[in-house]
Amino acid sequence: MKEKKEKECSLWDLYAVYFLVALSAIAINVPPLDQTPLRTALGLLMTLFLPGYALVSALFPGKKGLGLLERVALSFGLSIAATPLLGLVLNYTPFGIRKDSVLATLLLFTLLCALTAHYRRKTIEGEESFSLSAGHKAFLPENRLDKALTVLLLLSIIISLSVLVYVIVTPKQGEKFTEFYILGPAGKAENYPTALKTGVNATVIIGIVNREYEQINYTLRVLLGNESLRTQGIPLVHNQSYSAEFTFSPTRNGTEKLSFQLYRNESIEPYRSLHLWVKTE
């Protein structure tokens, strides 16, 4: 009975791996959990630690040879090595490198390694099987130099992971710019109304997208030759877009420049400018 209880205790870490794998699959795919910080935390764990830990447990089911700290360090290293290799294999399959295929592959790889570790530990007799209760005893070696190197390794892992998490979680500010475009009446960059007849309506689509990382008060001016056809204020926050049809009707024959001028905040010079040459008969 005591031996059976010890066997169960030696498998607690693998039960935790099973639980975290299942929780990761739910948190990454099921709303509303997929919109919470839990998704990011479990995604990092699933990518950077669990596959390597399961693989180390399968390769070293006994407590001899590796202490707990060495297992932790190897878990991170093997996870970082295995994840891109699995992605490379996926690239040559019909599934390709997509979120669902990568997640499924990581989950399957981690579960297979954990199940292998589970089986191998059960085949090891008595106290020779690795367990967290036994592993913590070898967490720090007795030798002073080895102890200092072990602490240094542990600090390096913590600092590296902290920097990695900060880089992933902190939003990065990219290049600031504004998208400004005109499209034909079908919503494509073709078939612009450039050959018209007097008094006949023509339509284009005007689009603006704010990528400036702040709210911008745009002013849109449309001119046909020297004649102002529209002046409109368009306030947009970061990542907000504006798209609308603009219909005009030439009143004179000849070739004129249809200008679209976009002003930013209180500027007196156009921030962006587009134009079409319109010929009217």
Can you walk through the features of this model?
The protein is built from 8 helices and 8 strands, in the order ααααααααββββββββ. The protein is an alpha+beta fold and 281 residues long. It has 2 domains: 2-139, no CATH class; 177-280, Immunoglobulin-like, CATH 2.60.40. Strand 7 and strand 8 form a beta hairpin. Helix 4 crosses helix 5, helix 4 (50-59) runs parallel beside helix 6 (99-123) and helix 5 (68-91) packs across helix 6 (99-123). It starts with a helix and ends with a strand.
> Which stretches are low in confidence, meaning pLDDT under 50 for 5 or more residues running?
none
Helix content: 40-55%
Order of helices and strands: HHHHHHHHEEEEEEEE
Spatial strand sequence of the major β-sheet: 2-8-7-4-5
Number of strands: 8
Average pLDDT value?
83
Treating each run of at least 4 consecutive H or I residues as one helix, how many helices? Answer: 8
Instruction: Provide the gyration radius in Å.
Output: 31 Å
Short description, anyone?
This protein is an alpha+beta fold and 281 residues long. The chain contains eight helices and eight strands. Helix content is 45%, strand content 23%.
Helix and strand topology:
Elements: H1 2-9, H2 12-29, H3 37-48, H4 50-59, H5 68-91, H6 99-123, H7 132-135, H8 144-169, E1 177-183, E2 195-196, E3 202-211, E4 216-224, E5 227-236, E6 241-248, E7 254-264, E8 272-280
List keywords for this structure.
281 residues; alpha+beta; Immunoglobulin-like; three-stranded antiparallel beta sheet; 8 helices
